[in-house]
Structures are given as structure tokens and as C-alpha cells.
Design goal:
Elements (H helix, E strand, L loop, with lengths): L2 E6 L2 E6 L4 H7 L23 E4 L6 E2 L10 E3 L3 H16 L15 H9 L22 E3 L9 H9 L5 E4 L6 E4 L15 H5 L5 E3 L9 E6 L8 E7 L2 E7 L12 H5 L14 E4 L2 E4 L2 H19 L6 E3 L5 H15 L4 E3 L4
Parallel strand pairs: 1-5, 15-16
Antiparallel strand pairs: 1-2, 3-4, 3-5, 6-9, 7-8, 10-11, 11-12, 13-14
Bound molecules: FE2/S2 (inorganic) cluster (FES).
Length: 349
């Protein structure tokens, strides 16, 4: 694809043909407020916050659905654009979106960021206070429609990325809401709990309940230990506790996506009953030991069994939680040290 040259807010911008104005502005470091656009999803044009003016074109245009073209002259702010955006945000606030301090998305909310940019006034409009019951049927996350801005990102994510279409926008007008299939409790829908909708929600409408324990204070890039796919993720921590997981969008294996185990299966890390040292059975009870004691015992017993019953009496089961290199070593151990081919692996996803 060729390069296109255009001007955005007086700045000359080079953009690849096919990009939207929103993408071209973003890559040139020019901020345009946007709530329904997402680089992983098809252009939608629902929230209208990304409106811009294009010289020679009548009216305002959603920059997330308008492609760049040669010689375009674009303005991302003017008194008309600012006043339309302010009105749009004030209308959202009039529908009950303003109680940020108690919102689970506080400080990571896209609407907050947009509001800080457009500076809405309070109380210009009076809307209908939504009173939707929370759907807490899902074991991991809650749907609070009272905080939803109907951007449709969750619906489109489930459709375009997960190919499941477990969610849709149901009803009309003020009654419109995000609904699992057939408007049944979430847990009874076809949802597979991947949590991708929660990750894409720009506000606090779909949120992981574990996050209510407090926001993370740090994150560490790592690889999921559940299976052999090797998805990239960030472990979100607060002090010494793991309080959440987010997919790594830069990882070529999963591009930010995770399955239910990778995204939500981290509670064992902090579980008080988690084994953190080896146990050796003495009589009818297990006694804590050091790794040296445990490994010496295993080596001694394997030698004894091999001597008494031959190598075929021993089998080795490898783990998907280990690395490829470690699994290579364990099959070497079975074949070269024990002398048998009785080796298997638990990765049968
Ligand atoms: Fe363009 Fe919502 S971001 S219309």
C-alpha cells in the first residue's frame, strides 16, 4: 500500500493508504477522543466523539470510519467540534455516568479520559437514571448495565475476535442493553468466560470482581504457565499479591487474547493451602521437608525400584507447566537414565 500525505491540525502527516483518520492522527501523536473505536475491531462509528472537520467537506465526520486520502486537510478541534463533543459527554453523564470514585474502572476509564479532554458542564441535561439489576451470575465478572455507554465493544469483541457472539445489544431506545443470548443470566449463555469483553470494556460496565479488592500497583510481563501455547500476559500485582492478569497485545502468539484459565485462573497463587515446600509421607501423615531431602528420597527409591523390578516398572509423566527445554530433559531422563520409553505428558487440551 502507498503512503498518503495529509495535514492534521496543521501538521504534515504520512499515513499508509487504508488507514482511518483516527489511526493516522494517533500515529502522529495527535489525540482525538474516541470511545467505540478499537484497533482490533472493525470501524463502528457509534459514539461520534471522534468527529473532525475536513476542508472542502460539509459537516462533521467520524474520524474512525473516514479513510485518509491524499492532500486532506483535517481539523480535530474547533468551536463546533468542541461543543458537539461536550454535549455528547454531558448526555452520557446525564444518564448516570459520573460517580467515578466508586466505579471499578476509576482511573483506567476511557470516558474519564475523554471527559478530562472535553470538559463537560454538570447538570445541563436531565436524563433517565438507569436502574438495571446487576448480572453477577458469571463466576468471574459482573455486568453492570447502569455504567454501560453502549459503545458495543464487548458485543463486537465477542463476535469479531472470539467468533462466539454470546452478547448482543437488545431492546431499543432507553431500554437498550448489552445482553447475553436470549437475555438470560450470563452464566446460562454460551459465553466461554474468556473475559475478552471485560478487557475491552472502556468503562466499568463489565468488570472482574477480584479487581474490587484494589487496583494493582505494578505489572510484570510473563508467559502463561497453563498449557503449551505460551500466551503472553502481564501479572498485575499489589504488594506481593497477584490481583489480576491482562493479555500482552505485543505477543505474537495471542495478541492480547487469553482463555478463561489464563485470565482468571490465578487465585491459586495466593491460596493459603498452596504447597510451597515438598511433603514426604511418614506413616499416615505428610511431613514438610527440604528439596534436598525430597530429591534424595526420589533418587534412592527410583534406583531401588529399577534394580528390583527393571526400568519398565517406572513411568514418567511430564508437565505442560514446564518449558519445552525442561520437558526435553525429562524425556532424556526417562530414556537415558531410567532406560524406558514410558513417558507421557499432560498437555491434552
Ligand atoms: Fe469514532 Fe466512536 S470512536 S464514532
Amino acid at each position: 500500500m502507498g503512503e498518503i500525505t495529509l495535514k492534521i491540525d496543521g501538521k504534515t502527516v504520512e499515513a499508509e493508504e487504508g488507514l482511518t483518520l483516527l489511526q493516522a492522527a494517533g500515529s502522529a501523536g495527535i489525540y482525538i477522543p474516541a470511545l467505540c473505536a478499537d484497533g482490533d475491531l472493525e470501524p463502528y462509528g457509534g459514539c461520534r466523539l471522534c468527529i473532525v472537520e475536513v476542508e472542502g467537506w460539509a459537516g462533521l465526520h467520524a474520524s474512525c470510519t473516514t479513510k485518509v486520502s491524499e492532500g486532506m486537510v483535517v481539523r480535530t478541534t474547533s468551536s463546533l467540534i468542541d461543543s458537539v463533543r461536550r454535549t455528547l459527554v454531558e448526555l452520557l453523564m446525564a444518564n448516570g455516568h459520573g460517580d467515578c470514585l466508586t466505579c471499578p474502572a476509576n482511573q483506567r476509564c476511557e470516558l474519564q479520559k475523554v471527559a478530562a479532554y472535553v470538559m463537560p458542564q454538570e447538570g445541563r441535561f436531565r436524563g433517565v437514571e438507569p436502574a438495571h439489576p446487576w448480572d453477577e451470575s458469571n463466576p468471574f465478572f459482573t455486568l453492570d448495565m447502569n455504567r454501560c455507554i453502549l459503545c458495543g465493544k464487548c458485543v463486537r469483541t465477542c463476535d469479531e475476535i472470539q467468533f462466539l457472539h454470546a452478547l448482543d445489544l437488545a431492546y431499543r431506545g432507553y431500554e437498550t442493553k448489552v445482553s447475553p443470548d436470549f437475555d438470560q443470566p450470563w452464566v446460562e449463555s454460551i459465553c466461554e468466560n474468556c473475559g475478552q469483553c471485560e478487557a475491552k470494556c472502556p468503562v466499568g460496565a463489565i468488570y472482574e470482581r477480584a479487581r474490587l479488592e484494589g487496583a494493582p500497583s505494578a505489572e510484570t510481563r510473563t508467559i502463561c504457565a497453563y498449557c503449551g501455547v505460551g500466551c503472553g500476559l502481564y501479572l498485575l500485582t499489589r504488594g506481593e499479591r497477584v490481583v489480576g492478569v491482562r493479555g500482552d497485545p505485543e505477543n505474537p502468539v495471542n495478541e492480547g487474547r487469553l482463555c478463561v484459565k489464563g485470565r482468571f485462573g490465578y487465585d491459586f497463587i495466593n491460596h493459603p493451602e498452596r504447597l510451597t515446600s515438598p511433603l514426604i509421607k511418614e506413616g499416615s501423615r505428610f511431613v514438610e521437608s527440604t528439596w534436598e531431602e525430597a530429591l534424595d528420597l526420589v533418587a534412592r527409591r527410583l534406583s531401588e525400584i529399577k534394580k528390583e523390578h527393571g526400568p519398565e516398572a517406572i513411568a514418567v509423566l511430564a508437565s505442560a507447566k514446564a518449558t519445552n527445554e525442561e520437558n526435553y530433559l525429562i524425556q532424556k531422563f526417562a530414556r537415558a537414565v531410567i532406560g524406558c520409553n514410558n513417558i507421557d505428558h499432560c498437555a491434552r487440551l
